[in-house]
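quick one before i forget lol
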Amino acid sequence: MNFRSYFPLANILTFSRLLLTLPFIYFFHTKMMFLACVIFGLASLTDYFDGIVARRQGVTSFGSFMDSVVDKILIGAALISLYLYQNENLLENETLIPMWMVIVILGREVLVTLFRSIVVAKRGEVISANRWGKYKTTSQVIVIFICLLLLMLMTDSHFVIQQFGPIYFLMFIPLILTVASGLEIIIGNSSSLLTKQSD
């Protein structure tokens, strides 16, 4: 049996990113921020490299779909972790980022994933990530990594650890790109659902 034919390197990198999500959650919630940064950084690098490998070896529908799903799991874990983060500089009902931000970003991801699944079921076509989707993912990764660095380097700083601090305002960058890219995908591909598939 040819192992590579069943598990190409790109897919192995994708699943390794999924596995890295678990230690990231653990290190974040035990406030071991250095290790959380390292794990998140490694997971982000696997996303970069599996894209390079996939383009060289050939992009598959399964690989493209799983890459997108695993990205959403990693980003979702990071956003929920930031929302749940507690510190002595935060009041009991305060959070680094509000729940509505988490809901908007993750809601967009779920909606777009469902939309892509419907297009595949009806048309047999996989909607590939466009440039706005790539901007969205890149902005999410960079901003979350910066937030982790701030928490690691300035844990006791009231400037960083407050409800409307830099982490809150930084999150507006991926928030806007996430919503914009989601609308672009749905509006730009809605015609494929409305057009009757030819025999």
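fyi The radius of gyration is 18 Å.
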